[in-house]
């Protein structure tokens, strides 16, 4: 997208100019008292905004918003003057105040006269879709030194121009929906050169309010007057929605539909959308601009084309007749009743339906099909019909969709890209349905949205993007990100752009001082929620291992550390900003950590009870407390700003037992230790053990080596098995093996640690490798308390690594490699690393425009690793994104070979029959990964080279694990092995 850089004058004073409101654009505004340019505001001074009476009503409306936005930052509102050039108001009245002209090319007499008098050049924007510019125009008429002109190529171009200026001067698009405080300004100056933006990357860009109960609906009832049909979604509500969408430079909305009828709930809804500049659509199963709820109320007979065609036709005909004068994108086609497939529809009958719908559109609207925006949504079962081969005219936009979990099911083929109607993408940031709803709070990893929507865009999806945003509230961040990508895909120049965008967005909402930390915090939040969604946590067994690699504990520790960081940023913010920060950042972390606490401590507690740790009771109490805290956190949200967001956190989210939400939040069954013990008061267990002393007299730790991952610490827990106190002492039979906390008194209750409860003491085992014996050996630690003694065996592996080796090194029978840690010199440069993508570190993929590759021919990823263990049945596990086979002509595949041996080629995602999810889909989306294990057979100790070829740009590799006999079960695989040399 073109934009003008500031010329010499501005470069000289560059330090005074801040970066722009739009991502990766330079700002035209500065705010210090001694800046230069055209002054738009100062102490007690606000501009006069002039609009021509013949411009769109939506332009006058946005001029009034801009006037108030100046007031929000300056403390004094601008005034709006409807100034007709022909009656000389504008020409003659030179104002002592700064003058801003807002108008549309070819529509506003103010703009057109500046063009005629050669004061303004609009050639950069004229006749383009939704394009705007703003600039200072010198001596626009005699007696006026300068004016600031905001002009658009069409209604929305002008509206976006005005809102862009509003954001530049310090009013966030989220000032109302997320309570982001405007930035106070004493001075506002505009630079002369024209700032031009547009046309947008995607023609129609918007949001779908969906799954809107209980939260949005409950809040709506408390905030707006209910319509005569009972819905709270009246025009006062939609004005807020439309304004937000336009401030985000969007233009398209699917209205709330669970128990609402957009066009009937308030008869002003339809015309207001058009006045604002919003195109209304209806969701995938609501054809012809009529709501699903209208079917049950007004349709005679059943929603069935085969048996009730005449009545269904009469019903559908009324949609375009009603919305004929309004900006509408018509949804075509038909599905079964209420978001289900139909038992009676065939490809032939769908073809007939669409042809009939198109004839109704042309006759009702009196326009050719090529001028009517029409979409056919390829949702759930619908692609199955299209795949059979249907004769649908090219005017229809084929509106593809994801799998409801953020994985695009289908990108257009080269042939489909030639259709004039182009294609769209329906993407979910929230969902109700199997395997489970996710409709509570934000669980979106922005890097994944970037990866999938860039894939869509780069493979031809340019016409419509819509995001299902659920209740909208709580999804501010992913919504803003999705809309920014849709507006200007090219400003996201590369896979690291998400981090940059997030920092920029954080700066604009919470200020420069908090920007960097907030971006890091929300990046981590995205990673933690990418591991498993809140609603899926109640599935048994618990997703994270409570035995191996300390996976559950370490994961929960990341949540706790994140909360500490977020709370610290919150504490440092001005109080007005704290509210917005709480809503968007602190709340999801606080509430999300609480949910993880419930499930993590439940799973650990049950293991602790088996080990007869008295502390199991503390964990159970913590879980009860976390449930109480959860409702306190929701209450805190509801009491913000005197109850502005009441009911917004009413969504249940704890205790899912099937795909549908539970009626109330409830915690799993807790296990308490109640039986008293007669044998040893001291209990001992060791990392990786499910059993414990005294049930087992001797415990064995997993082996430890100099190459063991630092996070994979060897520890021994010493704990009370009943109420009481004891002292213990740890002794080692090898001077190179030591343990912390080697002499302590354990008491119930005792000292507090993070996840292990009050009475437990953790002794960390460490080895001095300089004095440890070479090769394999073992040491023994004895934990003695009075006359009882437990023994913990510590297997030691101290192998010799050739000094010239570069790569990952085996420890404990495993080599674990993050995908981005390939051998840098030998890996093809064609691969891109997507930082922060996925569950652990990042992802690696081919750029979206890359062609399908033949096995073992194209760009290669090379991994170098060293093993010490001689394995007769080695295996290799690939961790891939849950991306679908979205190229219908070539499924996701990868090839690999080890040590130059035979090349194997794997299709990780089975072919689904068209319109159905592939086998294994549910598990893949729950764990957010396809995990594919291959047998390697014999693998001799020594240096190895693994070569991997990703054959499609539709897939992302995140991690690789070689098992030479030591792999243990876990969700995310072992922590990464040590890398030597790079
Ligand atoms: C600006 O105008 C709005 C809308 O009329 C009003 O609510 C607000 O109080 C005004 N602000 C100032 C600073 O006068
Ligand atoms: C559309 O606009 C025309 C002209 O203003 C008017 O006569 C007609 O009643 C309108 N139709 C609807 C359905 O509102
Ligand atoms: C410890 O004492 C408390 C209070 O007397 C009792 O409720 C609890 O059950 C006891 N714990 C065990 C493990 O017996």
Labels describing this entry:
982 residues; Chitobiase, domain 2; 8-stranded parallel β-sheet; 6-stranded mixed β-sheet
Q: What does this protein look like?
A:
It is a single chain. The longest helix has 36 residues, at 575-610. Helix content is 29%, strand content 22%. Strand 4 (48-51), helix 2 (57-74) and strand 5 form a beta-alpha-beta unit. The chain has 5 domains: 4-197, Chitobiase/beta-hexosaminidase domain 2-like (Chitobiase, domain 2); 289-395, Alpha-Beta Barrel (TIM Barrel); 532-642, Methane Monooxygenase Hydroxylase, Chain G, domain 1 (Up-down Bundle), CATH 1.20.58.2150; 682-798, Immunoglobulin-like, CATH 2.60.40.10; 807-980, Jelly Rolls. By secondary structure, the chain is of the alpha/beta class. The chain starts with 7 loop residues before the first helix and ends with a strand. Helix 19 packs antiparallel against helix 20. Mean pLDDT is 94; it is low at 1-18 and 750-757. One 2-acetamido-2-deoxy-beta-D-glucopyranose (NAG) binds next to helix 2. One 2-acetamido-2-deoxy-beta-D-glucopyranose (NAG) binds at residues 614, 673-674, 676, 722-723.
């Amino acid at each position: 997208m073109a934009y003008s850089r500031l010329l010499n004058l501005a470069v000289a004073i560059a330090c005074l100019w801040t970066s722009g409101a739009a991502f990766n654009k330079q700002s035209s505004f500065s705010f210090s008292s001694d800046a230069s340019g055209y002054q738009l505001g100062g102490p007690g001074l606000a501009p006069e905004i002039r609009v021509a009476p013949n411009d769109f009503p939506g332009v006058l409306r946005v001029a009034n918003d801009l006037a108030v936005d100046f007031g929000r930052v300056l403390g004094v509102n601008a005034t709006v003057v409807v100034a007709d050039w022909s009656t000389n108001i504008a020409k003659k009245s030179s104002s002592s105040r700064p003058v801003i002209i807002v108008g549309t090319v070819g529509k506003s007499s103010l703009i057109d006269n500046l063009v005629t008098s050669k004061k303004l050049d609009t050639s950069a924007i004229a006749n383009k879709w939704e394009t705007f510019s703003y600039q200072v125009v010198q001596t626009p008429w005699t007696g006026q030194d300068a004016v600031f002109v905001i002009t658009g190529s069409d209604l929305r171009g002008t509206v976006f121009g005005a809102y862009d200026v509003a954001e530049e001067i310090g009013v966030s698009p989220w000032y109302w929906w997320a309570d982001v405080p405007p930035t106070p300004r004493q001075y506002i100056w505009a630079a002369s050169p024209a700032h031009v933006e547009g046309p947008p990357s995607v023609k129609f860009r918007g949001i779908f309010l969906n799954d809107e109960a209980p939260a949005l609906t409950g809040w709506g009832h408390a905030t707006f007057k209910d319509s005569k049909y009972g819905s709270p979604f009246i025009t006062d509500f939609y004005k807020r929605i439309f304004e937000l969408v336009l401030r985000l430079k969007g233009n398209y909305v699917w209205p709330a539909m669970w128990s609402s009828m957009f066009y009937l709930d308030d008869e002003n809804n339809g015309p207001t959308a058009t006045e604002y500049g919003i195109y209304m659509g209806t969701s995938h199963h609501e054809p012809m601009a009529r709501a699903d709820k209208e079917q049950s109320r007004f349709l005679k007979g059943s929603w069935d084309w085969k048996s009730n065609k005449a009545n269904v036709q009469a019903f559908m005909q009324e949609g375009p007749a009603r919305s004929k004068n309004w900006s509408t994108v018509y949804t075509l086609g038909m599905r079964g009743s209420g978001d289900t497939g139909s038992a009676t529809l065939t490809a032939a009958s769908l073809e007939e339906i669409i042809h009939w719908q198109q004839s109704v559109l042309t006759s009702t609207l009196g326009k050719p099909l090529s001028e009517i925006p029409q979409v056919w949504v390829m949702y759930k079962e619908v692609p199955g019909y299209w795949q059979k081969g249907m004769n649908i005219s090219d005017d229809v936009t084929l509106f593809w969709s994801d799998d409801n979990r953020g994985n695009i099911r289908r990108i257009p083929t080269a042939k489909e890209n030639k259709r004039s109607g182009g294609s769209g993408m329906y993407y979910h940031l929230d969902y109700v349905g199997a395997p489970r709803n996710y409709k509570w709070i934000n669980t979106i990893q922005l890097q994944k949205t970037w990866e999938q929507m860039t894939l869509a865009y780069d493979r031809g999806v340019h016409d419509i993007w819509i995001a299902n945003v659920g209740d909208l509230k709580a999804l501010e961040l992913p919504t803003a990100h999705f809309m920014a990508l849709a507006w200007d895909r090219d400003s996201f120049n590369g896979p690291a752009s998400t981090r940059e965008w997030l920092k920029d967005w954080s700066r604009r909402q919470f200020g420069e001082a908090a920007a960097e930390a907030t971006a890091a915090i929300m990046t981590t939040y995205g990673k933690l929620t990418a591991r498993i969604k809140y609603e899926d946590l109640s599935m048994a067994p618990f997703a994270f291992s409570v035995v191996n690699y300390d996976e559950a504990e370490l994961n929960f520790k990341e949540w706790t550390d994140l909360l500490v960081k977020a709370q610290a940023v919150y504490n440092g913010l001005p109080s007005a900003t704290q509210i917005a920060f709480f809503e968007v950042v602190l709340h999801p972390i606080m509430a999300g950590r609480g949910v993880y606490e419930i499930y993590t401590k439940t799973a650990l507690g049950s293991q602790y009870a088996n080990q007869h740790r008295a502390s199991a009771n503390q964990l159970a109490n913590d879980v009860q407390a976390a449930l109480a805290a959860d409702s306190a956190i929701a209450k805190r949200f509801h009491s913000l700003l005197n109850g502005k967001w009441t009911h917004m956190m009413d969504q249940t989210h704890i205790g899912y037992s099937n795909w549908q939400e539970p009626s109330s939040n409830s915690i799993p069954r807790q296990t308490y230790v109640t039986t008293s013990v007669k044998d040893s008061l001291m209990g001992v267990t060791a990392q990786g053990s499910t059993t414990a002393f005294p049930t087992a007299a001797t415990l064995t730790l997993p082996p430890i080596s100099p190459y063991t991952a630092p996070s994979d610490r060897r520890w021994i827990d010493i704990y009370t098995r009943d109420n009481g106190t004891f002292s213990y002492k740890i002794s080692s039979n090898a001077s190179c093996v030591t343990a912390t906390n080697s002499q302590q008194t354990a008491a119930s209750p005792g000292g507090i640690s993070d996840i292990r409860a009050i009475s437990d003491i953790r002794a960390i085992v460490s080895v001095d490798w300089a004095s440890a014996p070479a090769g394999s050996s073992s040491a023994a630690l004895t934990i003695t308390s009075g006359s009882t003694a437990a023994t913990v065996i510590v297997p030691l592996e101290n192998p010799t690594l050739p000094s010239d080796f570069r790569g990952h090194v085996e420890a404990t029978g495993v080599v674990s490699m993050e995908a981005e840690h390939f051998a840098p010199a030998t890996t093809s440069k064609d691969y891109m690393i997507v930082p922060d993508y996925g569950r652990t570190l990042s992802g690696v993929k081919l750029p979206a425009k890359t062609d399908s590759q033949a096995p073992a021919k194209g760009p290669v990823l090379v991994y170098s690793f060293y093993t010490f263990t001689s394995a007769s049945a080695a295996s290799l596990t690939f961790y891939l994104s849950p991306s679908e086979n979205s190229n219908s002509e070539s499924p996701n595949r990868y090839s690999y070979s080890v040590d130059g041996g035979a090349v194997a080629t794997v299709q990780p995602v089975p072919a689904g029959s068209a319109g159905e999810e592939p086998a294994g889909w549910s598990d893949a989306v729950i764990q957010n990964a396809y995990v594919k294990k291959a047998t390697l057979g014999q693998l001799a100790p020594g240096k190895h080279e693994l070569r991997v070829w990703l054959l499609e740009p539709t897939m992302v590799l995140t991690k690789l694990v070689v098992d030479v006999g030591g792999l243990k079960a876990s969700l995310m695989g072992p922590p990464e092995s040590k890398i030597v040399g790079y």
